[in-house]
Amino acid sequence: MPKEKRITLAWTGASGAPYGLRLLECLLAADYHVYLLISSAARVVLATEHNLKLPAGPDAAKDALVARLGCEAEKLEVCGKEDWFSPVASGSAAPRQMVVCPCSAGTLAAVAHGMSDNLIERAADVVLKERGQLLMVVRETPFSTLHLENMLKLSQMGVTIMPAAPGFYHQPQTIEDLVDFMVARVLDHLGVKQGLVPRWGYDQRS
Q: What is the mean pLDDT of residues 10-19?
């Protein structure tokens, strides 16, 4: 499998589960093999914001997502939070790209300080040490000084910090339009072709 078609996606306990689910759908549609990491808190948020109650086991969670999204099962791998034998846990096997979406302030802090206490933190640490591409879609407001310091620290390491702050110039009509705005920006930074949102300056010049 070509490395450029492999990616790690992590869902953490911040509000913004629709962003993560939509991003997963788009990555699978773009023919990526996705290693999906889901924190315990993310499961709670999914159930609260999306009425999606995933089973506890990785295999059962994968089956539920495949059924919901209608994707090819072989494109998705759900990893347990302590699956240290997963490819994402090793620099010799991990994808070069990773997105944490949504990203909680706790995960932000843990990655900034190299904690690696669970697979999400370890996977992010691997991408950092291997000089890969790490995007963190932070969902918190307001930001404390600690949050800002952690974002600055990670930005100085090459991490792309993308607060979940959708724009309105495309005149969104639905919540799904706002979700697509952020997902489109993430896909742009990953180099994944997308047509979710009109690009600034193009439709305005008709």
A: 97
